[in-house]
Design a protein that fits this description.
Number of helices: 10
Number of strands: 7
Radius of gyration: 18 Å
Bound molecules: S-adenosylmethionine
Order of helices and strands: HHHEHEHHHEHEHEHEE
Number of domains: 1
Strand content: 15-25%
Largest sheet: 7 strands, mixed
CATH superfamily: Vaccinia Virus protein VP39
CATH architecture: 3-Layer(aba) Sandwich
CATH topology: Rossmann fold
CATH class: Alpha Beta
Structural class: alpha/beta
Length: about 230
């Protein structure tokens, strides 16, 4: 019994201290940056829990769907030793293009998108790789380059087939023990069921049933590779 207690004490001593990030810290990350939208920051408390064990490590992060850089700035700031690969066409997804066709403000935001992203992440030029491409092409390129990642955030095209393709092409690039987060699992904005991400995520999780464990499943889904 005594030996067990001692071992536990030793393990606790070795564990790095949990990083405390305050709302003031987060506000500072985004100070002076320009955004038209914020679909993302309400996930930060959950991401901080899911990614706490990575914060001091030189992790490789893959992001599919960057928009104006809000999620990218989270990863770059919360994981100060991380390198981030961002894939985006900077042309918007189906829902953004439809909104831009209806509304001049949305059209302007879409026109400014890539410039906004570039300006918002400019302080991190040495830690970021921007791939302006369709995600299927960019992921194939990363596979051919034999790149590997510890964390992936899948938030690109929202049709079920797009999310499924992004997931299938991302999975071989993820290290064992790596984390993949899917956005918008419960998003139901599109009238056609298969124009929403949920069915694509469910189909992918079924296809890799024995290769993952679920770390979180609500509006977003987070899985860890076995
Ligand atoms: C919801 S936004 C991403 C939001 C961003 N992660 C954030 O938190 O601010 C989706 C992005 O995916 C991009 N996108 C959509 N389909 C894509 C595709 N097939 N390949 C690459 N990028 C795509 C769009 O241009 C858009 O910028």
């Amino acid at each position: 019994m005594k030996r067990r207690i001692n071992r536990k004490k030793k393990e606790t001593a070795r564990r790095p201290p949990r990083r405390v990030v305050t709302e003031t810290d987060i506000a500072a990350w985004y100070e002076g940056k320009r955004f038209a939208d914020d679909w993302t920051s309400w996930h930060f408390p959950n991401w901080m829990k899911l990614l706490a064990s990575y914060h001091d490590r030189p992790v490789r992060v893959l992001e599919i769907g960057s928009w104006e850089g809000r999620s990218a700035l989270f990863f770059l700031n919360f994981l100060p030793r991380a390198r981030l690969t961002c894939i985006d066409t900077f042309a918007g997804g189906q829902e953004h293009r439809e909104a831009a066709a209806r509304d001049a403000t949305e059209a302007r935001a879409l026109k400014l998108l890539e410039r906004r992203f570039d300006a918002n992440v400019s302080a991190f030029a040495t830690r970021i790789r921007k791939m302006k491409a369709n995600s299927a092409n960019a992921l194939a390129q990363l596979g051919v380059e034999k790149r590997r990642f510890d964390i992936a955030y899948i938030d690109g095209g929202h049709r079920a087939t797009e999310v499924y393709t992004d997931a299938v092409m991302t999975w071989p690039l993820i290290e064992r023990g790596g984390t993949v987060i899917f956005d918008d699992y419960q998003w139901r904005e599109m009238p056609e069921r298969l124009d929403n991400p949920g069915p694509g995520i469910d189909a992918f999780l079924r296809a890799i049933e024995w290769q993952h464990r679920v770390a979180h499943k609500k509006y977003q889904v987070a899985i860890v590779k076995r």
